[in-house]
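re: ur question from earlier - yeah i can do the single chain one, its not a big deal. heres the input i used so u can compare w yours
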Amino acid sequence: MEAFWTAPPVSRTLTALTAVTSVLVYGGIVSSRQIVFYLPWIFKFPLPEVWRIASSFWLTGPGLSILFDTFFLWRYSSALETESSRFSQPGDFFTYVIFLGTFILLTAGGILGDYIFSSALVLGLAYTYSQDNRGKKVSFFIITFNVMWLPWAMLLMAFVMGGPRSAVHDGTGLLAAHLYDFLTRLYPTFGGGKNYIRTPMFVTKWFGGHRRNTHVKGYGTAYRPPVQQPRSQSSGFASGFSNSWSGRGAGRRLGGD
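and the output i got, formated as tokens:
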């Protein structure tokens, strides 16, 4: 449990929710009808089911996809949350995930009419990971190549295993991540524009940005309580893919074949 609580907060929460939700659904304990994104139920009167906006990102594909999708979700999200310079302030990574999720909901959910979005989110994370690690090598099956090709290899695999609609569905995550990169880095740096995607102050405070005696990390803030030392002493202050895509059909339509 100590390893869990010392992990980056957004990544550990998202990964845990995804693993637990997928096991419960595919284990027959919870119905997927209570999880998926479906607008008529979200805005149902008098009891709107608004949790579907978030829970639709917590359900993976069936079978080994539970393992693979959850692993890749943790792999890329934790790497970004702890190592990426673009998420240097408390709450920055949370704001990024919310941006990706909102774009995916509007496109894959609102336009394409799909119901679960974990694979699109993973592809968005992988795209940003590839942008932050230019020049590095990654392995895909038995092939090693530049990390810049990683999201495109994943998109190709979605197309091969699930068909064109599956690739379009997952591609919304790639588009979301690219739009975030354009609005926060490319346009302000090379186009002379302004970055309007700022982490709100209440989010920064929520992640501990208002506390004293804190140490800012890529994933948030580590709090260091004050330590009182005896006056007579000096003091010192010494941290493979295949089956994951096989369950993705044409956007996983509810009630589909």
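Residues 212-257 have pLDDT under 50 and may be disordered. not sure if urs matches, ping me
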